[in-house]
Amino acid sequence: MEIDRRAFIASLGGTAAVAMMDSEAKADSLEHYMEEQLDEQVAANQAKEKFPTVAEIEAQIETRNYRRGVGSLFVSGRGNVKKLTPMPKNATLKDFFELRFAPANHVLQSATRAMKTGMSEEVILACLLHDCVLNLIKPDHGWWGAQLFEPYIPEKSAFAIRYHQTLRFYPDADAGYEYPDQYFRIFGEDYKPPAHIEATYKMLKNHKWYMEPRLVTVNDLYAFDPNAKVSLDPFMDIVGRHFKQPKEGLGNDNSPSAHMWRTLANPDQPL
Amino acid sequence: MRIAATALFTVCVVAIAIAQTKPTNYKGLEITPLGIERAKVVSLLDCPPGQNSVHGNARGEEEFAVVKLGFKVTPAFKETVVKKPVLTDTAGKTYQTSVSIIDPGSKPAYECGFPFRVPLGTKVASVAIDTATIDIKALDK
To answer: pLDDT tens for residues A168-224?
Structure first.
């Protein structure tokens, strides 16, 4: 704790008063002063932000010309959308990261944090991919995201992507996961998850793979360094080991999610 | 005036030093407990501190016991994964934190606050990082 010397001396009655105190009294006064400062800091931290209610968020729907669930590739927050660079013929995951998911800071930071805290490769991969589908669609993004990647990644990683969406609503102190206050802002402070999410949570609590999606939530949103420069490069080995890149290119391999990759590649197609 | 200020500075340094306990060495990291704060809302910054928009919000009968630790990186430290601290209360119950230690060798010295969600009024005993256990009873006033 930093001490403002002038404020401290003033609180004791000025330099003349301090000069009359013995060392023990000065030490006691300093300790008391520090305690008071600490109390003030804690009180300042406790000033809670006012979050919107579910009703207030619903009232905003008709103030927009788009739905909140639209994928980021399909709408521009500022001005018109821009023409996209065409995807190469045999597009890889790296191509999609560079040309459709960029800047992808959130997932790259999440995966970097997972890597630096010693998570398994399946969890690191899940962290790297867990929100990429938000470029396509936002509601139920856990399920959509798992479907997009499922043909190409380990079962545990797909499980983690699918169910991180559910576990985000449920704090788990033992795993070190706090309910994010960002959720109070985007869902409303009185939001209750729908029945299918509650049922999924009940299923997950007893599942042997509970920790896979839980560890994605643990690494979700936390930023370890505001100036961190993140890139896909540190993950290329993990991608090489665990992502089954189709030789025809993503979108051309007739997998169950090939159409989703084609939509990401060509979001300007009218039909 | 200058003498009084110098004496006061000395008193400050001594008092702060008394409030701290001896550092514990863990794989070349010198870890010193600096204090414990109690709060209902805490900012969840990783360690060394980064920037984060996530806060922990304690519910009615809970609070956060925020254990502040000082880290000094000695030449003996080799970059490695350092586990999250675990808090133990005086009854032996353990608590986890959501704050991780990331790149512990990236700065020569730094201070971090580790929030633990505990029942109101919980008296804490120690904090452990892997095999290093640090007694913090004396700091819990």
So the answer is: 999 998 898 988 888 888 999 999 999 999 999 999 999 999 999 999 999 886 554
List chain A residues with CB under 8 Å of B104: none
- Given a contact cutoff of 8 angstroms between Cβ atoms, the answer to whether B99 and B114 are in contact is yes
- Contact assignment for A225 to B50 by CB distance below 8 Å: yes
Locate tokens 């597009």: which residue? A91
In our burial notation (b when 16+ CB lie closer than 10 A, e otherwise), range A251-261 reads bbbebebbebb
Total beta-carbon pairs less than 8 A apart between chain A and chain B: 112
At residue B35, what are phi and psi to the nearest 5 degrees?
165, 170
Kindly provide the ipTM of the predicted complex, given to two decimals: 0.71
Summary mean pLDDT of chain B: 85
CA distance A214 to A218: 6
B86-89 and B41-43 beta bridge pairing? unpaired
Residue of A116, A177, A218, A227 to mutate, testing the B interface (most B Cβ within 10 Å of its Cβ)? A116
Residue B98 with chain A: CB contacts under 8 Å:
176-178, 218, 222
Nearest CA to B70 out of B35, B115, B117, B118 is that of B35
Residue of B9, B50, B56 lying closest to A223 (CB–CB): B50
